[in-house]
């Protein structure tokens, strides 16, 4: 049996816990795996999933079958712990899709709040726990602003979201950008009914909990609920799409992606590393961002030059500071960063690492379902400020050549084969990197790479589309500059109030499809039956609408959650 080896990117599959195993005695291991899961290969559409399960099962079950060290250049310190139920984790890991559905159904339960139920009690409880967690973290107490932004930041985020709405009305990015540029500020007539779009989801008194933790990681708990009306345990429907393998980092099939594997190997060489020696005996958060001699910060500054000069200060990618894009043009491409990592002497616990907040796992996110057609989506029961890193978008890092057509719609492109600007940047590193490494980096510039989360992914896989999306993505490199060193980070575009579903914009490719079936429910939804008053508004007017909805959500949040909680804590 062929066992495919994996490099972890940029970290380690949590089921493998820091090492990768190479099988030497394939016949012995193959016989065991064949007996264990061979009977589960009946359905054709399961083959890809089962193949990956075999590989992962072999790596978990046979830690002493021969070792190949992970590339330190992409290795990421990752904490995984499953002391609560390791047997259940293994059972789920090696199960087929139908068997995983059976396992999830068997573990589902009805959860009910107490009789004197306060509909906002859940939000208050989660906020209380979050505040306690932050009060126990010195870095968060000193550096993280847990509140709505200032007026300037709010105006910038509303304007950016509004421009994204205008762009989303067009199937072509160039045409959408022309419309944005042509917009002129004008007085907006009062539009009634916006308060309807300020409503948030209030968890019902009775819910169906499908699982306490879809990640199986005790350190990263992610419950899954189904909140469909009239649903019971007897008629509970669990779709195949919920049975993906949960991973917290990307991985690469190094047998198939030989050129990328070679680049990863070369990046291990000292000359091709980018790391720092910054340290401090006084500061818990090392000031790498303030150190002009820090190699990681130097690279961060170089990548900041990708941002288009529009007369404003470049967006800073600094630990604990909000990320507020100020230019819609090619936003994903132009906003790219380089962060310190555990390879550095600072261990990434510094001011030059926006990913540091994600590693603290302070926000108690959930996955839930309120519409059978929309399916499962991430949901926040707590307030999250605008510009906050929330999660990574993980999956298999794969070139377009090997990406299954059925998986394209799930995948997110992170590199472009016609990227002359990035190619020139790579060539500018000739005096720093080895000649062979630069050559292979240039070659990789001719390939389109994607992150495919369909079979292996994390919470980012469940992020649905919205015509008024509240999250965006950006690339953050660590350690070096291959596609394998790029993290795809999801961050909030606006303040997220409790009860808000986390969404992204699926982009121009989906514009035509969304006309007939988008169910995001936002005021500017392309399929909104009440959306006529908003269809002709330009980005300036739409920004006013976005702000009015934001202000109403904030008013309700203060009234129903924050102020009552303050009174409770004072008594």
TrEMBL record:
InterPro entries: Class_V-like_SAM-MTase, SET_dom, SET_dom_sf. Residues 363-507 form the SET domain. Pfam families: SET. Gene3D superfamilies: SET domain (2.170.270.10). It comes from the Eukaryota. This is SET domain-containing protein. It comes from Caenorhabditis remanei. The lineage of its organism: Eukaryota, Metazoa, Ecdysozoa, Nematoda, Chromadorea.
């Amino acid at each position: 049996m062929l066992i495919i080896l994996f490099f972890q990117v940029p970290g380690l599959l949590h089921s493998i816990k820091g090492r990768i195993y190479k099988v030497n005695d394939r016949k012995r291991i193959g016989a065991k795996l064949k007996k264990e899961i061979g009977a589960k290969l009946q359905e054709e559409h399961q083959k890809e999933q089962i193949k990956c399960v075999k590989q992962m099962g072999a790596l978990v079950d046979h830690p002493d079958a021969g070792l190949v060290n992970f590339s330190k250049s992409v290795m990421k310190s990752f904490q995984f712990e499953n002391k609560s139920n390791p047997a259940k984790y293994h059972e789920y890991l090696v199960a087929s899709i139908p068997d995983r559905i059976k396992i999830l159904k068997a573990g589902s339960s009805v959860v009910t709040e107490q009789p004197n139920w306060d509909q906002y009690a859940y939000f208050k409880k989660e906020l209380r726990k979050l505040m306690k967690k932050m009060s126990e973290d010195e870095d968060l107490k000193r550096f993280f602003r847990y509140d709505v932004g200032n007026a300037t930041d709010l105006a910038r985020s509303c304007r950016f979201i509004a421009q994204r709405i205008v762009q989303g009305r067009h199937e072509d990015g160039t045409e959408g950008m022309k419309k944005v540029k042509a917009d002129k500020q004008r007085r907006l007539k009062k539009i009634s009914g916006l308060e309807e779009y300020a409503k948030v989801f209030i968890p019902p008194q009775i819910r169906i909990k499908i699982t306490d933790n879809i990640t199986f990681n005790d350190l990263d708990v992610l419950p899954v609920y189904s909140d469909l009306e009239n649903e019971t345990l007897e008629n509970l429907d669990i779709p195949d799409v919920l049975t993906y393998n949960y991973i917290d980092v990307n991985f690469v099939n190094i047998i198939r992606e030989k050129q990328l594997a070679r680049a990863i190997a070369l990046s291990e060489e000292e000359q091709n590393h980018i790391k720092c020696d910054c340290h401090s005996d006084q500061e818990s958060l090392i000031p790498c961002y303030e150190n002009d001699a820090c190699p990681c910060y130097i690279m961060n500054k170089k990548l900041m030059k990708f941002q288009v000069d529009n007369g404003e200060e470049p967006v800073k990618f600094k630990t604990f500071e909000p990320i507020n894009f100020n230019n819609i043009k090619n936003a994903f491409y132009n906003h790219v960063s380089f962060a310190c990592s555990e390879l550095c002497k600072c261990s990434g616990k510094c001011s030059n690492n926006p990913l540091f907040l994600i590693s603290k796992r302070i926000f108690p996110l959930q996955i839930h379902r309120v519409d059978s057609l929309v399916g499962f989506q991430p949901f926040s029961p707590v307030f999250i400020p605008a510009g906050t890193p929330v999660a990574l978008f993980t999956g298999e890092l794969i070139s377009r050549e090997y990406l299954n057509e059925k998986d394209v719609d799930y995948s997110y492109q992170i590199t472009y084969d016609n990227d002359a600007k990035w190619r020139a940047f790579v060539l500018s590193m000739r005096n720093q990197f080895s000649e062979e490494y630069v050559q292979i980096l240039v070659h990789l510039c001719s390939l389109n790479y994607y992150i495919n989360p369909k079979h292996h992914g994390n919470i980012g896989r469940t992020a649905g589309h919205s015509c008024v999306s509240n999250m965006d993505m950006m690339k953050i490199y660590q350690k070096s500059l291959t596609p394998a060193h790029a993290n795809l980070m999801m961050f909030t575009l606006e303040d997220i109030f409790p009860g808000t579903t986390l969404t992204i914009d699926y982009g121009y490719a989906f514009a035509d499809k969304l006309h007939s079936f988008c169910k995001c429910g936002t005021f500017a939804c392309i399929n909104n039956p009440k959306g006529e008053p908003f269809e002709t508004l330009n980005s300036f007017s739409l920004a006013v609408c976005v702000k009015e909805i934001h202000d109403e959500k904030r008013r309700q949040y203060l009234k129903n959650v924050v102020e009552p909680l303050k009174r409770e804590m004072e008594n």
